[in-house]
Amino acid sequence: MPHAKIKPLSAATFEAERVLADVSRLLVSGGGADLHQVLALLCEALGARSAHFAFAPEPFISSAALGSPTDAAHPALPASLAGQVLVWPPGSPSPIADSRARHLPSTDKSTAGTVTQVPTGHTGSLTLPLLTEDDRFVGYMGVEKDDALDDGPDSPWRLLPALGDIIGTHLSRLAAEEGRTQSQSRWRGLVDHHPDAIVISVGGQISYANPAATRLFGTNAEALQGSALREFLLASDEDTIESQQRLQLASPSPRPFEHTLIRLDGSLRTVESLSVPFPGVVDAVQTVLRDVTERIESADRYRTFVETISGGIWRIDLDTPVPRGNTPTREAQQVVAHGVLAELNPAMAQMLWNGSGEMLGTPVKDLTRLFDHSLFRALAESGHRLHNYEVAVHSASSKRQYLSINAVGRFERDALVGVWGSCTEITERVAMESGMVDALEEQQERIGRDLHD
Q1: Average of pLDDT values for 235-253?
Q2: Alpha-carbon 152 to chain mean position
Q3: Cα angle, residue 77 at apex, residues 76 and 82 outer, rounded to 5°
Q4: If you average pLDDT over residues 75-93, what whole number do you get?
Q5: Closest C-alpha to 415, from 332, 349, 323
């Protein structure tokens, strides 16, 4: 059986394939290719008068479904090229680029590479849309020639659609690299200016520390580089911290925990630590350390003050906030209905409940011996700053006591969310005042009897 003869390529077609292969290697190589050089090679390969790229005015257009939402998270075209028209040789007129860059292509990818043949004696041109692998339109590639185009089956012009696909993929890769670079730049800017210490460690060794971390550790970034995180932890805490960090890394919603950190000068700081996996690097961990030393010390000082002060301190929280605008009576009803005793110092507990701290968490409606409607109505009528409000109550031992109450409302988003208050026992003062009144009344009666006699 005779073998079919293979038709040899023309010299022009062979040269065009060689040059276009060079263009393809240039595009798929690492780094950004010079697109003007690509256009120059196109002109050389095809014997064209000029060539151009006309890029879409914005980088997120999809040609797969016109009118569909654009994919702003994954641009298909570098932002630096959006709306640009590149022409070779420079300065050459490109009416096709000027007119077509403003319009979307057909959604039918099979039309890519259709040769636009003009009448004999006029310039021939070919224009095809540039599409990425996922059919997103990024622009046009066009070539102009002084004579009619050869649209025969072995014409070198028939190679352009494949080249257009390579160029579209190349542009999509450039866009991805540009987006990744911008994302890294934004991340670095955020981390460098973040008020909390952020360190990235690989296998327990610090590979990056932001400026806040250098201040927290009391050293510079160079000294921290390569240091082990364990060097800055108390030996007695290492196992606990390691266990807590493992839980954080395995959790989709990790919660911070507190531990002690040793600065380079030997001083101790209390930090909140939160660790998450750092993407893209094996065994890399990103840890955020928030210095809470002052907050802890302030809370300790407050707790010491509250526990040692002779006056009673209490706090009521509302499980349902009460918006402003209610009448004093209505607000008082809401506080009694939704309030819970959230804080109680020893002096207050001793004053009314013989030192029992078990009253914490008790609903206010069960404590109306002290926290009745009249107290909270007076608080509302005072503009939520009540001073020296005197009440008479019975203690747990049924002893009658007189108290002076100061209270202030706590507001969030224009709604009452709780009440802080203090109590001072004034039983002796009231008894003394009552005794003085009784003595004056007795003296007046005695004077009246003497005058009568």
Answers
A1: 93
A2: 58
A3: 140
A4: 81
A5: 323
